[in-house]
User: Fold Dehydrogenase from Roseibacillus persicicus.
Amino acid sequence: MNIPTTRRQVLKTATAAGTLAAMGMPHIANAQAGNNDTIKVGIIGCGGRGSGAIVQALKADPNVKVWAAGDAFQAPMDRCLKNIASLGERAIVPPERQFTGIDCYKEVMDSGIDVVLLTAAPGFRPRHIAAAVEKGIHMFVEKPMAVDPAGLRSVLESVKKAKEKNLSIQHGFCWRFHPAVKEAYGKITSGEYGRVKAVWGTYLASPVRPLANDAKKPEGMGDVEWQVANWINFDWLSGGALLEQAIHTTDKVAWAMNDAQPIAAIGTGGKVGRTDPGNVYDHHNVAYEYADDVFCHVSQRQIQGVHNEVIDRVTCEEATVFGPGRCYAKDVAGKMIWRSKPKPGEVQDMYQVEHNELFAALRAGKRIDGGDHMIRSTAHCLLGAYAAQTGKKVTWDDLWGSELDLAPDHLKFSDDFQPQSMPIPGQFTLA
Assistant:
C-alpha cells in the first residue's frame, strides 16, 4: 500500500519492534491442529455486534472459552453474558474477569487471553488494536477500523507489527464472507461479464439509535461518559453513518473494482432529517473516481419515513450484477442470465463464516492476514465521507496527508469534551 507509515501521537510510547520480536510466537501456538487445547477469548464491546460475535466464536470451535469481557458500561455486559449463558460453561465469565470503564481493554488484554474480539465504538479501535499487538493477541476486528486519518496511520503501524509477530487479524467486512456475494463478485472481478463500467450502491435506512432532539446530558455525568453511552451520534466515536454502517457498501464498491486504489472522491451530505445534539450527517452521496473514467456511486441515508433499500448494482460491459443476499445478473437486454443458489452443506451465515475461518486457521497453525484489507477499505470509506464534508474533490493522497485527529487520546469519563462542530462543506477542511 502506497501510504504513509507515521504513527498516531498517542502510540509513540508503544514497545519498539525489536522488543516485540523478542517476545516470540503468541501463546495460541499451543492450540493448533491435532489437539483440543482451550482457546481463551476476550471481548471488548458487549453491545449488539459484540454479543453476536461472541456467540459465533463459541460456535466456531468446541474448545473456545469466553475468558474475559469488557465494556464501557456494566449493563450491556450483563445483558451479553446473560444471553450467552445458555451455551454452557464455556460462556460463563466470573466477576473477577469482567471489566468496565473506558480503559477496560487493558484489563481484558492482561487476563491471559489468546484471541480478542474488538467490537467497541470504532473511535477506540486503533488503541485496542495496538494493545492487542503489543500483548501478542490474535484478533477479530469489527468495521470500521478507525474514524480519522490519525487513527488510520496507527492501525497501519499496528498491522505491520502484527505481521512481524505472526498474529492473525480477521476483519469484519462481513459481505466478503457471504457465499452468494462472493460468487457474484467473483464473476465481476474475473471479468466474466467484461470490464466494470459503473457501480451504484445504496444503503438507505432508518436512523440507528439517534438521540432525542431535546436530549441533554444528565446532571452529574461527564461529557465523555454521556457521549460514549450514545456513541453512534458523535463522529469521534462512530465516524458517522457512512463509515459506521454504509462502509459495507463502499467496501463492495472497492471489491467490484478489484480493490484498486481510487483516484479521488466527490460528494455531498449533511443533516436534514434530525435536529438532535449529535454531530454526524444523516445522508451522503459520493462518487468515487477510478482509472479509465470509471465512476462508482454510493448513496447513504438514515432518515425516518422515506424509501429504504440496500442494493448493489454493478454494471459491466455485458451484464449488470445485483446484490447483496440473493444475487443475480441480467444481460444488456434485461434477460436474467444467472442467479445465486445455496450449495448443500455450505454455511450461509456470513458472520459465522468469519469466525469459522479464523478459528480453523488458528487450530491449523495458519495466519489470517486481514489487516491490509481493513485499512484499505476503511480509508476508502473515509475518502468519501471527507469529500462530502469538505465539499471538495479529495484525493487518496489528500486523505493520507491529513493530520486530522477527532479526539484527545487519554479522555476520562468525567472529562469535559466538546466534539468538533458539524462539518460545513466549503468551510470544513482536512487538517
